Amino acid sequence: MAKYNTPADLKYAPTDEWVRIEGDEAVIGVTDYAQHALSDIVYAEVSVVGDAFKAGEVFGSVESVKAASDLQAPIGGTVVAINETLELTPELINQDPYGRGWLIRIKPANLGERDKLMSAEAYEKYCDGRE
Question: What are the mean pLDDT values of the chain's consecutive 10-residue runs (131 residues total)?
Answer without folding.
Answer: 85 98 96 94 95 96 93 98 96 97 97 96 93 70
